[in-house]
């Protein structure tokens, strides 16, 4: 009797083992399918992903007579999620550090006339060149080495974000153009130019839309300030511009 019970028990154990061997791959496959259906932002608690993307960005200036300033640029983006997902409710998400570089950057500005003037020695008068045209199209390179972003976990398809960033801009001519057709040393003297170097503090909001588990289309709106921090003689800058971007990202 005891031998029969042991034999039945062994047979049952073998059957259970065979069933587990058969079921486990199915369970793992199902689990992988579930994971593949999630965005990398949602799965950041187990894997902090990298992201690499391309983007185009454009917009216009506001305030301080900058409504006619327009911007267009194209470049690349790279980022690394640094934390697990944490936080309550709708704020649930993670921190990311990123950088962007725009090797193509252009700003289209109004053209106007100005002169270059110098004081006449031992006289109260000034001597000025004929009026010439300044402004127009400026070409440059923009690098944003500091981007701190909060990615909301969102849904399987959508992951919003907010960010703060700071960068630097180089242009082929001193940007923006400065001067006036009303001739005076304050506007047109030898020390009245801007700078080819400007800084670009900025902040914005955006969203990843995942067309596949590790591929996303990205949309954002950014408020960008452009200022030389007085590296030039004058710092006319662009106090506020609103720029929109469209990108495509690969997640690793």
Write the layout of secondary structure elements.
Elements: H1 2-36, E1 50-62, E2 70-81, E3 93-114, E4 117-119, E5 126-128, E6 132-152, E7 158-175, H2 185-188, E8 195-199, E9 202-212, E10 215-226, E11 238-251
Antiparallel strand pairs: 1-2, 1-11, 2-3, 3-6, 4-5, 6-7, 7-8, 7-9, 9-10, 10-11
Describe the protein:
There is one protein chain. The strands form 2 sheets. Strands 1-2-3-6-7-9-10-11 form an 8-stranded antiparallel barrel. Strands 4-5 form a two-stranded antiparallel ribbon. Strand 1 and strand 2 (70-81) form a beta hairpin. The longest helix has 35 residues, at 2-36. The chain has 2 helices and 11 strands; from the N terminus they run αβββββββαββββ. It is elongated, with a radius of gyration of 30 Å. It is α+β, with helices and mostly antiparallel strands and 252 residues long. It is 15% helix and 53% strand. The protein has helices at residues 2-36, 185-188, and strands at residues 50-62, 70-81, 93-114, 117-119, 126-128, 132-152, 158-175, 195-199, 202-212, 215-226, 238-251. Residues 23-35 have low confidence and may be disordered. The termini are far apart.
Q: Which key terms come to mind for this protein?
A:
single chain, 252 residues, alpha+beta, eight-stranded antiparallel beta barrel, two-stranded antiparallel ribbon, 2 helices
Number of helices, counting only DSSP H or I runs of 4 residues or more: 2
Q: Overall pLDDT, averaged?
A: 87
Give the termini distance in whole angstroms. Answer: 61 Å
Order of helices and strands: HEEEEEEEHEEEE
User: How many strands, what sense, and barrel or not for the largest sheet?
Assistant: 8 strands, antiparallel, barrel
Uncertain regions: pLDDT < 50 for 5+ in a row? Answer: 23-35
Based on DSSP secondary structure assignment, what is the total number of beta strands? 11
* Shape category: elongated
Rg over alpha carbons? 30 Å
Into which percentage range does the β-strand content fall? over 45%
Strand order, largest beta sheet: 1-2-3-6-7-9-10-11
Helix content: 10-25%
Which structural class should the secondary elements be placed in? alpha+beta
